[in-house]
Amino acid sequence: MTTTEQIQAEPARPAGFGPVGWLRWAWRLLTSMRTALILLFLFALASVPGSIYPQRSISPDKVAQYFKDSPGAAAWLDRLWLFDVFTSPWFAATYLLLFISLAGCVIPRAAAHLRELRREPPAAPRNLSRLPQHASFEAGGATVESLARTLRARRFRTVTGPGWVAAEKGYLRETGNLLFHAALLVLLVAVGAGGLYGYRGNVLVVEGNGFANTVAAYDRYIPGQRVSPDSLEPFSFTLRDFQATYVGSGERRGQPLDFSARLAVSDRPGAPERPYDLRVNEPLEVNGTQTYLLGHGYAPVFKVLDGKGQVAFEGPVPCLTADQVTYTSECVIKVPDALPQQLGFLVRFLPTTVPAQDGSWVSVFPGAANPTAQVFAFSGDLGMNSGRPQSVYQLDTKKLKPLVMGLKTEPLAVGGTLPLPGGAGSIQLTGVREWISLQVAYDPGRLPALLAAGLAVLGLVLSLTVRRRRVWARVGEAGDEAATVEVGGLTRTESGDAGFAEEFAEIVTALRGPQGGADDPPHGPQMERPAPPREAGDGAAAPPQEAEAGKAASPQGVKDAH
Question: Region 533-548: what's the mean pLDDT?
Fold first, then answer.
């Protein structure tokens, strides 16, 4: 067998897709409605960890507490970006794919829907009895134009032909569907705009201290890519007082009732101060920049004297809440300037202190009714001169010498002083203040996102409640007294067939009732309350003037855009 014969004998192999074919296939897969729904579900699913685990952008103190309680698990969670969900690469990838999928899905469907709106209803089928909904009756004086007017009165778009009329309505179903997906697209754009041109930051403010909206004042600052330090709104405020109210008795004893931070706000440099009560869900807003109250805690005020009698430290120390029920809190004091040795303190703050049966001390109420502080003192090298960063909420005691230890050590009351052994100095609790944690955020996409969410709800309601349906009617040759009218109808969705049966019966009643005459107005009370249905063959002949009006009707092919 020759080479040519061998080639002819081999079966033809199907041609491969090629790069262009694979790209076209990937684009069609990405822009399909099914893929858009899957990505929308994944986008919602990707947001769930943001509500389960504390986020650095909202509660950095809780993230620090998580690292303290479970350092191993926290390290793995941090590798997976679960403390920064909304800035993680996998969240951004889901967001970008969803945006592309929605854009590629909505734009072609919108163009097709516009063409559909301009298209006439299809002509009546030859055999209407094969449709899911069908009826026939005899009506005197029934003409194509009179039937068309009746259908137009029920907000159908109509077109007439030789002996038939076609009507259709329910275009709002697809309009609502497109509105829903377009609103999701606008929502994604608004979120993206907020990420580019907005910023947010967290700061902890103690009573009596102030805050100015500058980058250096934040404990954590997350700017958008298009945000510069000069674009921050130049407002400032001072925390005059913070009040937390709790239930004092009964089964709900200790539950919070209200939180209020009294601020003195200056909207711009040199502007007079104005009072403002900052509450939960009632943020301070200055020219679009909002300040939210996130949390609060205690900041006991200490005064530390070193071994030479000099004041080595004095001021409030913010404590992290260890027990949300009693607000038992923990904090760290580092005194690197103490002589002859550096001092470090672990403090356990008790807002309402009572002695326990085992000889220890506990707090029984979140309010500061009897505030005390248990102090655990250490001396030695704190390691602050090594250049390695340290957390202000953690104290490494491995290389430190313990001076005062034990949970049964009597706590310090306000004004009380604890001398340190060996002449290392003393520590005094001079007062108790409270701190608040704030989030300052500027999001230019906030209002567009709200409007888009409202439009998405409206589109979803339209797409779920409106049915696309079509009705056709044929007028046969008139007999001695009446003409035979045959009516058929169907819906564009199978789920709407059950609900359409009742509406179709009402349409048939309207077509064969008195309002189906040629001279009846298209709107009026009789259209809202149609006459009871009559059996085929019992219709009365139209008056002579109505018959003449029917003969003078406009020619066939009339189209209505209602």
Answer: 38
